[in-house]
């Protein structure tokens, strides 16, 4: 049962990513804004920091799988989110080796991860000309609101999951040692 918990939460967040844009206003002070929810990415960052050990890569595996599912469900181009989620989970996994796992570091890595994810996706779409948004417009109307909204998401997810992730990780390691 415990092996199903993380994928179920990731699946829930994947569904919520599809619902969220319908609940958020598209205009702020008369100008159009785009808030892209990265609930799955935020949870994967928590996994990379608090669940994975140096020698385990569960967050990266889940990032690739759920990035692919995001591509299938929400985009027209397969592989963009799969690559981006996998790369960001890998970088966060590597950075956590030199940083202490705490609230501040989690927020910095979330800021880095969400910014990198959204920028990579924008750049890939710009290169293949799916988007025509200018970089300055992208930064003001999409990147900034997206990062702020996802930092709020992390403020909600962090207290709910960081202790549980440690506990689940220790249970997984103790189970592997006994088998």
From TrEMBL:
Pfam families: MreD. The chain crosses the membrane at residues 34-53, 60-83, 103-128, 140-161. It is a multi-pass membrane protein. It is found in: Cell membrane. Its main location: membrane. InterPro entries: Cell_shape_determining_MreD. One of its GO terms (cellular component) is plasma membrane. One of its GO terms (biological process) is regulation of cell shape. Keywords: Cell membrane, Cell shape, Membrane, Transmembrane, Transmembrane helix. It comes from the Bacteria. Belongs to the MreD family. NCBIfam families: shape_MreD. This is Rod shape-determining protein MreD.
């Amino acid at each position: 049962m415990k092996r199903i918990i993380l994928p179920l939460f990731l699946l829930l967040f994947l569904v919520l990513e599809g619902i969220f844009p319908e609940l958020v206003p598209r205009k702020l002070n008369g100008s159009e804004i785009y808030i892209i929810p990265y609930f799955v990415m935020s949870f994967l960052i928590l996994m990379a920091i608090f669940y994975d050990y140096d020698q385990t890569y569960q967050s990266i595996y889940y990032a690739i799988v759920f990035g692919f599912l995001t591509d299938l469900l929400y985009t027209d181009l397969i592989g963009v989110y799969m690559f981006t989620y996998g790369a960001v989970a890998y970088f966060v996994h590597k950075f956590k080796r030199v940083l202490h796992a705490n609230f501040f570091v989690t927020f910095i890595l979330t800021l880095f991860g969400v910014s990198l994810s959204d920028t990579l996706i924008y750049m890939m779409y710009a290169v293949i000309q799916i988007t025509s948004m200018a970089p300055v417009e992208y930064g003001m109307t999409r990147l900034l609101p997206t990062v702020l909204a996802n930092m709020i998401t992390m403020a909600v997810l962090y207290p709910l999951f960081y202790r549980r992730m440690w506990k689940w990780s220790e249970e997984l390691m103790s189970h592997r040692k006994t088998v």
